[in-house]
Recover the amino acids of this structure.
């Protein structure tokens, strides 16, 4: 497997489609992890999604096969079907001439649902911007921290150290949770 | 932070490339995706079972009808959530942002759009109704239909588009789409079959069992098309105006 460049040969010549999808997927993953800006994270998410779509579509490719719509000679309403008195199941050899419809179906719905969920994500980040005036994650965390400290002060005006200590832990947890859901 | 994030990225990349060497080659007819009994059944039997020439539509609306129904519900819920998040978030006509300018709708643009929009909408109906025979279907037709309303909003302003397709009507149409889909499923249940078992509709339609599935698929696609049209436009209207529903882009 590892003798003189066989693996590179395999990756770049025979399985180039998988290499492209892996690269795109990593770009998206990196953007989602490392970028501070929420919109850039969303762009990363879209690139990631595109990589998955590319993966499915490239798996659906079949040599010497046409798109999964019946040719005139197999058309259930065509002249050939009428001559035989109704549509017939395709033989094994005929099945081999059509590409698999399943990946196309899955990606067709995935694209539209992806647009809808991207719209939802944009709406959430728009609302965050209206509320905090920023969509940079580090600035957001600072502002959230400050706001939590303010509410804590309002709830416990007397400096009662053990009570504040016990209150701090669940608050810190909540901050990390909201940070996660923003990604 | 940035350097640390490269570690999981390269780890995932290594695993994926490592796994890719075991994947089938490009276009290999013997690959599991192309040679599995499932896809062979879809390709071989679609014509007999449903008489639909486009296998993609048959798999989408019939064999995997349950999946598609809830994909549509996901689209609907996403649209509802956007509405709920952005509604009343900014007071109408309050703060004017830098990118908002007063501009008359352009004469050439609006007249071109006036010519193009009917064609786009007829094409959307064609894609929707012809989805059995040629590439197309509810999702594609719905997106094209929604794009025609977005084009009106882009070339005039949002009020012009909302006067034709108000947000209340949008949500009504979106909900009606899902009701059409689920209604066809439940109706076939009342007729003695299972949920979304369209073949039972032969008792009310003057056609064979196969053609009942064919026509029920069209009904289902119309439901999907309604929901997608309304949600695409609702998403644009809310996101472009921050929920204010007024002004141009």
């Amino acid at each position: 497997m590892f003798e003189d460049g066989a693996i590179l040969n395999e990756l770049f010549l025979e399985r180039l489609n998988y290499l492209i999808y892996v690269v795109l997927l990593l770009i998206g993953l990196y953007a989602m992890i490392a970028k501070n800006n929420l919109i850039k994270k969303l762009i990363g998410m879209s690139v990631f999604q595109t990589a998955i779509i590319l993966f499915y579509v490239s798996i659906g490719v079949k040599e010497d096969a046409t798109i999964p719509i019946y040719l005139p000679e197999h058309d259930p309403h065509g002249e050939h079907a009428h001559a035989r008195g109704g549509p017939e199941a395709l033989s094994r050899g005929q099945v081999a001439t059509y590409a698999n419809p399943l990946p196309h179906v899955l990606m067709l719905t995935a694209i539209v649902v992806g647009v809808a969920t991207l719209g939802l994500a944009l709406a959430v980040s728009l609302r965050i911007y209206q509320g905090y005036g920023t969509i940079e994650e580090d600035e957001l965390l600072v502002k959230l921290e400050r706001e939590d400290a303010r509410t804590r002060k309002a709830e416990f005006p007397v400096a009662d150290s053990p009570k504040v200590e016990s209150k701090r832990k669940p608050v810190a947890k909540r901050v990390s949770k909201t940070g996660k859901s923003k990604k | 932070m940035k350097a640390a994030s490269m570690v999981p990225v390269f780890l995932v990349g290594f695993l994926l490339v490592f796994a890719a060497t075991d994947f089938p080659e490009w276009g290999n007819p013997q690959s599991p995706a192309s040679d599995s009994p499932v896809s062979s059944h879809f390709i071989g039997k679609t014509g007999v079972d449903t008489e639909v020439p486009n296998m993609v539509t048959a798999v989408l609306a019939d064999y995997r009808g349950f999946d598609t129904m809830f994909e549509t519900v996901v689209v609907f819920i996403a649209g509802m959530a956007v509405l709920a998040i952005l509604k009343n978030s900014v007071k109408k006509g309050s703060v004017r942002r830098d990118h908002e300018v007063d501009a008359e709708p352009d004469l050439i643009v609006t007249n071109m759009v006036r010519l193009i929009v009917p064609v786009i909408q007829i094409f959307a109906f064609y894609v929707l109704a012809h989805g059995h025979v040629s590439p197309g279907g509810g999702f594609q037709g719905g997106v094209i239909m929604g794009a025609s309303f977005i084009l009106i909003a882009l070339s005039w302003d949002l009020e012009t588009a909302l006067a034709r397709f108000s947000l209340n009507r949008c949500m009504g149409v979106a909900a009606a789409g899902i009701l059409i889909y689920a209604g066809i499923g439940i109706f076939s249940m009342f007729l003695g079959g299972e949920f979304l078992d369209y073949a039972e509709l032969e008792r009310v339609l003057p056609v064979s069992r196969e053609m009942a599935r064919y026509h029920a698929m069209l009904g289902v696609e119309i439901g999907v098309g309604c929901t997608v049209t309304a949600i695409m436009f609702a998403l644009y209207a809310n996101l472009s105006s921050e929920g204010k529903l007024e002004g141009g882009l």
User: Anything to note?
Assistant: The two ends of chain B are 37 Å apart (CA to CA). Chain B has a mean pLDDT of 86. Residues 59-87+107-249 of chain B form one domain.
